Amino acid sequence: MSDQLTMETLEQHHQDNIPRQRRRSSIKPEGSESTTQGLTGPNFRRMSRIEPRASLQYGLAGRRPSQASRRTSVSWTSQGTKHNVIPVRLQNTYRMHPESKEKFNPTSVEKMMKGVLESYLDGENYEHKMCANLAQNLSDVIKSRVKDLGFPRYKLVCNVLIGENANQALLMTSRCLWNSDTDNFAQAHFSKGKLYAIATVFATYFE
């Protein structure tokens, strides 16, 4: 009896000294509907933590952008803005008044305006839709012709009024706040048949 107990004690002691191997959990393949005992339990949960988790701030990678990449992007932006500097084309002349030959000349401007009105309106009849578009076109044409006459550093405002001629009385006035030594205006009118037009150009010197 003592020998049997001794042999059983030795075998039990030998089994206790053998290291226990960890159970390997098999992962369920994709598309399989069968369930096994290895899919549940602590081993399966522990292996599932290896998968990357989606981050709301940094995406699936879960990595925070390094400071080096940020510094590189900032330095590239600062270098790009240095090459976009607008070059200086004109220097300040410190001139407060135009020269005598560059001063606005109302006589030459009025002569040009009368020629434009006669060439565009001669033989035309009054029609409100057509005259509305024609007034805008005449304003652009007259302003372009005044610029071609050569008045540098002058700001121009052109106004053209076209109406129906019914033998009515018409009075047109304007008021401006400007320098009478440099600024001026020119005006021309046209009247024939059932149509009349008044064109006015205001010129102010840009100091």
Structure description:
- The protein has 207 residues and is α+β, with helices and mostly antiparallel strands.
- It has helices spanning 2-17, 42-48, 67-82, 106-121, 128-149; strands at 154-164, 184-192, 195-205.
- It has a 3-stranded antiparallel sheet.
- A hairpin with a 2-residue loop joins strand 2 and strand 3 (195-205).
- Helix 4 (106-121) runs antiparallel to helix 5.
- The radius of gyration is 47 Å and the shape is elongated.
Widest sheet: strand ordering: 1-3-2
- Shape annotation: elongated
Strand content: 5-15%
Mean pLDDT: 76
How large is the radius of gyration?
A: 47 Å
**Distance between termini?**
127 Å
- The chain-level structural class is alpha+beta
Q: Helix proportion of residues, in percent?
A: 25-40%
Write down the secondary-structure element order. HHHHHEEE
Low-pLDDT windows of residues: 32-44, 72-78
Main sheet specs: 3 strands, antiparallel
Number of strands: 3
| Number of DSSP helical runs | 5
Brief overview:
This protein is α+β, with helices and mostly antiparallel strands and 207 residues long. It is built from five helices and three strands.
Task: List its traits.
15% strand; alpha+beta
Summarize the SSE layout with pairings.
Elements: H1 2-17, H2 42-48, H3 67-82, H4 106-121, H5 128-149, E1 154-164, E2 184-192, E3 195-205
Antiparallel strand pairs: 1-3, 2-3
